[in-house]
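About this split. The held-out portion is used to measure sequence recovery: a designer receives only the structure tokens and must propose an amino acid at every position. Recovery is the fraction of positions where the proposal matches the reference. Here is one held-out target exactly as it appears in the evaluation file.
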């Protein structure tokens, strides 16, 4: 029996997460009044033969009742009631953008700006984030990527370190990505741009990759880069970091950076304890489609 409390910031993906869990056989209830949580847990445990897994959506809509939730959780812990908390989060600017796209008003904003409502919500939900066993930052996730993360956690039962890594290729001529945590410049590698038959191709293609890797310098760089990143990952987890953006840049973001970013993704893919995705912000900007998560 598995009881998951799905919570988090409004607009960060709670509705999507509940739909995904329901697709995987969880009995899901959204926005249940806090006073009924105790009864819900009792019913789920009593009917464990019929209900093998359940998910309970709780968010800021609970209003003043939310302050009583800590007491409920403390009681569950004392009585040994098994439960897990999944907290969905996203950067403030992403949440503001999602609200503007849907033309919805934030439940705590009133007549004020959306960011003021988000600030209040973070304060009220802080105790849940501190208790969460899983924190997913959906700032750069597509709905299908969020689905995959939830599947790994609650269906495949993979280990989770609360860290989602985005490997991002980009072109320096367009500027360094503002959300980058680590930035690596690979403009020292052979440049396919000056080869006419490679100029219009990208680092997704083997011929371009072979050109970039010629001479062995790229392989040496990859060994040193992976050694450093593998040292950093567990330390970021210990510090509570849940979102890491590794940016790999070349001049135009089309050949060298894409080649190295793809190779880095390949080498880090064995780390099943982290979420991992690859994105190209140079030649591939905008080709990934909508980032909307409800």
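Reference sequence for scoring:
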């Amino acid at each position: 029996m598995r009881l998951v409390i799905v919570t988090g910031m409004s607009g960060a993906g709670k509705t999507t997460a509940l739909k995904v869990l329901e697709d995987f056989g969880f009995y899901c209830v959204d926005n249940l009044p806090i006073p009924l949580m105790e009864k819900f847990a009792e019913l789920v445990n009593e009917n464990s033969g019929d209900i093998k897994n359940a998910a309970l959506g709780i968010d800021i809509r609970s209003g003043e009742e939310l302050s009583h939730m800590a007491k409920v959780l403390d009681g569950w812990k004392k009585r040994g009631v098994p439960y897990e908390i999944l907290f969905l989060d996203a950067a403030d600017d992403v949440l503001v953008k999602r609200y503007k796209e849907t033309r919805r008003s934030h439940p705590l904003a009133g007549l004020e700006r959306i960011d003021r409502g988000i600030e209040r919500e973070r304060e009220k939900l802080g105790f849940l984030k501190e208790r969460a066993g899983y924190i997913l930052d959906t700032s750069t996730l597509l709905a299908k990527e969020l689905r995959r993360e939830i599947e790994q956690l609650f269906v495949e039962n993979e280990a989770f370190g609360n860290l989602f890594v985005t490997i991002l290729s980009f072109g320096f001529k367009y500027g360094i990505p503002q959300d980058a945590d680590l930035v690596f410049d690979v403009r020292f590698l052979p440049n396919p741009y000056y080869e006419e038959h490679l100029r219009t191709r990208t680092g997704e293609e083997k011929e371009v990759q072979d050109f970039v890797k010629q001479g062995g310098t790229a392989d040496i760089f990859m060994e040193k880069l992976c050694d450093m990143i593998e040292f950093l990952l567990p330390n970021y987890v210990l510090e509570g970091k849940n979102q890491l953006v590794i940016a790999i840049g070349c001049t135009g973001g089309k050949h060298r950076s894409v080649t190295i970013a793809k190779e880095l993704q390949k080498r880090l893919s064995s780390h099943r304890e982290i979420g991992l995705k690859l994105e190209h912000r140079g030649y591939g900007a905008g080709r990934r489609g909508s980032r909307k998560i409800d």
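Annotator remark: The chain has two domains: 2-154, 164-280.
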